[in-house]
């Protein structure tokens, strides 16, 4: 039996009764196949997803590529970890049917290929490399687990309101650069459902970038070079920060480091914590000078952790300031510390390859039951990962008479429902401007094409 | 280009007195004698091979400039400028034919020709450089006046960020879509604003090289088509044998197949790792045993090395399964990891054999949080490196020698010194490849232990 032949099971099971909302749900209470089936049956925004991934190729304009959507790879992860790659769908409704009949735990979106991914085997017979990715959004994946050495509230997959702001800063830094530096306009940020964020850059130019160009953008964002075996994880050389880093530092990182981060993580408050920072100073005299100061002050302090932490930071800055000339490696030491703690830690490998898969927006995370909703980068401070609607809440809402979200255009109604706000945001802030510019592009390139073929008649 | 047997030759008309870099845009209308066809190609191959060596040894750009200059003088120079130009062009087109025939060959040729072009371009004066930009027809406008004024401060910041103490902005900047200068973007050597990179006159090389590279890359595809459809058959008695011999005459060892010394089995892998692996692999190996896991970069680096060392696919699967299943369970292992291992052995996907990484590649990798791959001499902190070397049994004298090389960024030499200290013999060739390290160490150990009685 091939993977593709695995059929959906349990089709005769009945709809569940309304679940009890529970503050500490067990995984199976916040997420299971039956909930998922209701979710896919009533709430999942198929049409919006299809519109997005069609990029204006809706068949209405003579310049449209009507096979565009059909060449997009999807992959499904099913209940029992069965993993189906290279699925593709001609239409929105065939995608909807496939999802409704197999209710995947996870839906990933891949690249647009030169030929229909479903039929790749037919082409591979010919021996030449015709099955290749041709377009792909430029994507970024940031995961809070990569910050474990700089957060003290949680570790691993956990997040809380104290460490989530690290993600918020990451969004601000990257989003600003994508728009200001690279000039991108159509950018979608999405909560990954549990512990991080995904970013989709959808401008035509971004979608057509080669792997080399993707790597270049990814590397532009790389500051963090540390690994498990080296304490000085960020190394900044030169006499000044590159304008991108300087802006990130001045506009976001410095303020966050001295404000929110100190308040929530008190990163200098104990010996364990400050030793890690002292290691980043490549001068043993300064290290021991500060260490001595802090060890002595520890016993007789009545200050709060945050206050202690702030005082020590000031001391460190002053000490470094007075010894700046000592060695070139100390020149940027303050900045290095701030960057180490606050600069976005992107999983760059995801961004570098066209054919990397990334989870679709509006999926539900199997461990938390939370929906992968879009995040507004301009108001990302307000985003609370713990307030994102969960499957049980959504189902409760349906059962108590809430409306289905998918195809309705009743703005009033959708606004009030749990998922409505997110879908509305997706449409108005992302989808509509995107489709408008896609249509314009299709129109222009159609006109030039017509123009060219007219020229060639005169030859 | 016509290949002829006769002695006479039609010299090209556009004789240029000073050395000039051709862009190889079109096949030259000239006649070539068969002997020259081959001899020129071999001379150019020597240059390209030298470049490849230099890059593998991690030479810096300045050293590469000198190297290319020397290589060119040695193999390609001719007192007569037009003769040299002809030789330059002919040899390029012959090698294009030789190297168009597989993806591997294409890739190598493309990188080496690009490197050659880059360094020759750098050796030209600014005027000659501008002329080449013109010849490519690059449509870039210099930024001037108010626009330049408005950017001065941030351009100065870029200059300072690159290690220059004064923010002196150059006189000429070009405004270029950022995607056309990926290398400058990647290393943050340009100011980028609203989709445009501001490329300084002195960075022109990067722009031109990108053009050159994409031109050669496309040309190789076309040449390949011509080769397979017509040339190979038409020339089967004359050029084809020459072309085919040229590509195999030089290929150095890539360690994708294990040699006689290398053949290890699962039961003595721990012993062998301890006695014969270079530090980078020893570290990865210990980490798998300890954590029962490795992130992708580590799995690739160690996995391909083990393949080169002669670990059979089944043993490799057994090895990784034994460790990983302690952490992720066998179902997930089969689903997520087994495929990649078979892939490395060419048993899945495109079925191409992946070759083990050379030091150069490992050293230039960029391990991130949670990663253990990379070259310890480059990526470990001093303390961790000292501790690791201590575990390999280095004396404090030897340790200082190694650390000295590390401080000067000669990582492969540091590794060579370690090798020499551990095995007590000299290694003049230097370490260029972890599998080479392994094979050399095996040779030494096998020559020391007498064959076991049967
Ligand atoms: S120099 Fe080469 S063999 Fe030695 S540790 Fe580094 S990468 Fe490994
Ligand atoms: Zn937390």
Automatic annotation (TrEMBL), chain A:
Belongs to the eukaryotic-type primase small subunit family. GO terms for biological process: DNA replication, synthesis of primer. One of its GO terms (molecular function) is DNA-directed RNA polymerase activity. One of its GO terms (cellular component) is alpha DNA polymerase:primase complex. SUPFAM superfamilies: Prim-pol domain (SSF56747). Residues 1-26 are annotated as: Disordered. Its cofactor is Mn(2+); Mg(2+). Keywords: DNA replication, DNA-directed RNA polymerase, Metal-binding, Nucleotidyltransferase, Primosome, Transcription, Transferase, Zinc. InterPro entries: DNA_primase_S, DNA_primase_ssu_euk/arc. This is DNA primase. Residues 1-16 have a biased composition (Basic and acidic residues). Its EC number is 2.7.7.-. It comes from Raphanus sativus (Radish).
TrEMBL record, chain B:
CDD domains: PriL_PriS_Eukaryotic. The keyword Amino-acid biosynthesis does not apply. Its cofactor is [4Fe-4S] cluster. Belongs to the eukaryotic-type primase large subunit family. The keyword 4Fe-4S applies. Keywords: 4Fe-4S, DNA replication, DNA-binding, Iron, Iron-sulfur, Metal-binding, Primosome. Residues 9-18 have a biased composition (Polar residues). InterPro entries: DNA_primase_C, DNA_primase_lsu_euk, DNA_primase_lsu_euk/arc. DNA primase is the polymerase that synthesizes small RNA primers for the Okazaki fragments made during discontinuous DNA replication. Residues 270-438 form the DNA primase large subunit C-terminal domain. This is DNA primase large subunit. PANTHER family: DNA PRIMASE LARGE SUBUNIT (PTHR10537:SF3). GO terms for biological process: DNA replication initiation; DNA replication, synthesis of primer. One of its GO terms (cellular component) is alpha DNA polymerase:primase complex. GO terms for molecular function: 4 iron, 4 sulfur cluster binding; DNA binding; metal ion binding. [4Fe-4S] cluster binds at residues 280, 359, 375, 415. Residues 1-21 are annotated as: Disordered. Binds 1 [4Fe-4S] cluster.
């Amino acid at each position: 039996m091939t993977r593709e032949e695995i059929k959906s099971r349990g089709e005769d099971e009945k709809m569940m009764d309304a679940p009890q909302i529970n503050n500490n749900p067990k995984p199976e209470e916040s997420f299971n196949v039956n909930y998922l089936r209701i979710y896919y049956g009533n709430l999942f925004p198929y049409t919006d997803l299809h519109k997005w991934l069609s990029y204006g190729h809706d068949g209405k304009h003579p310049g449209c590529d009507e096979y565009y959507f059909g060449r997009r790879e999807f992959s499904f992860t099913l209940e029992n970890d069965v993993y189906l790659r290279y699925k593709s769908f001609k239409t929105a409704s065939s995608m909807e049917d496939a999802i409704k009949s197999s209710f995947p735990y996870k839906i990933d979106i891949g690249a647009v290929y030169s030929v229909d991914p479903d039929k790749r085997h037919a082409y591979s017979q010919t021996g030449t490399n015709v099955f290749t990715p041709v377009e792909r959004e430029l994507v970024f994946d940031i995961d809070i687990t990569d910050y474990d050495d700089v957060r003290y509230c949680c570790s691993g997959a956990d997040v809380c309101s104290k460490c989530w702001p690290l993600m918020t800063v990451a969004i601000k830094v990257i989003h600003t650069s994508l728009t200001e530096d690279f000039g991108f306009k159509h950018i979608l940020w999405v909560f990954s459902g549990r512990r991080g964020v995904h970013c989709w850059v959808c401008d035509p130019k971004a979608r057509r970038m080669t792997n080399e160009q993707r790597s270049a953008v990814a590397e532009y964002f790389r500051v963090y070079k540390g690994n498990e075996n080296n304490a000085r994880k960020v190394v900044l050389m030169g006499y000044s920060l590159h304008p991108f880093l300087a802006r990130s530092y001045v506009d976001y990182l410095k303020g966050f480091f001295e404000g929110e981060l100190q308040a929530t993580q008190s990163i200098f408050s104990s010996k364990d914590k400050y030793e890690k920072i002292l290691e980043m100073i490549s001068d043993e005299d300064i290290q021991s000078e500060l260490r001595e100061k802090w060890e002595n002050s520890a016993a007789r302090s009545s200050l709060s952790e945050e206050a202690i932490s702030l005082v020590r930071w000031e001391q460190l800055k002053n000490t470094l300031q007075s010894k700046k000339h000592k060695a070139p490696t100390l020149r940027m030491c303050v900045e290095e510390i701030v960057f180490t703690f606050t600069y976005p830690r992107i999983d760059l490998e995801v961004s570098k390859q066209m054919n990397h898969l990334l989870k679709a927006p509006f999926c539900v995370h199997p461990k938390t039951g939370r929906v992968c909703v879009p995040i507004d980068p301009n108001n990302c401070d307000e985003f609370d990962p713990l307030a994102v609607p969960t499957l049980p809440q959504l189902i409760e809402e349906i059962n108590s008479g809430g409306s289905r979200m998918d195809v309705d255009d009743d703005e009033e109604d959708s606004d009030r429902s749990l998922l409505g706000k997110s879908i509305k945001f997706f449409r108005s802030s992302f989808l509509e401007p995107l489709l408008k510019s896609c249509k314009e592009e299709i129109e222009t390139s159609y006109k030039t094409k017509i123009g060219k073929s007219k020229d060639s008649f005169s030859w | 280009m016509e290949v002829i047997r006769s002695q006479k030759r039609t010299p090209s008309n556009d004789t240029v007195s000073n050395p000039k870099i051709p862009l190889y845009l079109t096949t030259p209308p000239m006649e070539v004698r068969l002997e020259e066809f081959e001899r020129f190609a071999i001379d150019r191959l020597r240059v390209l091979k030298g470049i490849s060596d230099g890059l593998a040894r991690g030479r810096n750009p300045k050293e590469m400039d000198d190297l290319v200059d020397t290589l060119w003088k040695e193999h390609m120079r001719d007192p007569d400028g037009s003769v040299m130009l002809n030789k330059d062009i002919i040899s390029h087109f012959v090698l294009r034919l030789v190297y168009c025939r597989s993806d591997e060959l294409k890739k190598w040729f493309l990188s080496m020709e690009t490197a050659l072009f880059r360094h020759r371009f750098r050796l030209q004066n600014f005027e000659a450089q501008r002329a080449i930009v013109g010849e490519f027809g690059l449509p870039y406008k210099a930024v001037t006046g108010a626009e330049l004024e408005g950017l001065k401060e941030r351009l100065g910041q870029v200059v300072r960020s690159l290690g220059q103490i004064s923010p002196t902005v150059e006189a000429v900047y070009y405004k270029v879509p950022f995607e056309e200068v990926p290398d400058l973007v990647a290393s943050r050597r340009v100011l980028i604003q609203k989709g445009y990179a501001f490329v300084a006159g002195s960075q022109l090389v990067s722009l031109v090289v990108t053009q050159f590279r994409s031109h050669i890359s496309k040309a190789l595809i076309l040449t390949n088509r011509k080769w397979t459809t017509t040339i190979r058959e038409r020339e089967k008695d004359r050029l084809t044998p020459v072309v085919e011999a040229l590509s195999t005459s030089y290929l150095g060892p890539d360690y994708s197949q294990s040699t006689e010394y290398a053949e290890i089995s699962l039961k003595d892998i721990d012993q062998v790792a301890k006695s014969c692996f270079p530090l980078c692999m020893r570290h990865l190996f210990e980490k798998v045993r300890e954590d029962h896991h490795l992130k992708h970069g580590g799995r690739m680096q160690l996995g391909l090395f083990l393949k080169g060392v002669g670990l059979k696919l089944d043993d490799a699967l057994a090895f990784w399964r034994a460790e990983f299943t302690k952490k992720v369970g066998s179902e997930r292992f089969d689903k997520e990891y087994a495929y990649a291992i078979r892939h490395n052995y060419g048993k899945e996907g495109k079925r191409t054999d992946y070759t083990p990484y050379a030091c150069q590649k490992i050293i230039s990798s960029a391990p991130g949080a949670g990663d253990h791959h990379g070259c310890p001499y480059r990526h470990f902190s001093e303390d961790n490196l000292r501790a690791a070397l201590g575990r390999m049994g280095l004396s404090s004298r030897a340790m200082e020698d190694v650390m000295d090389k590390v401080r000067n960024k000669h990582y492969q030499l540091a590794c060579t010194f370690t090798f020499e200290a551990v095995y007590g013999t000299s290694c003049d060739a230097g370490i260029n490849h972890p599998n080479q390290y392994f094979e050399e160490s095996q040779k030494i150990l096998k020559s020391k232990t007498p064959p076991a009685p049967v």
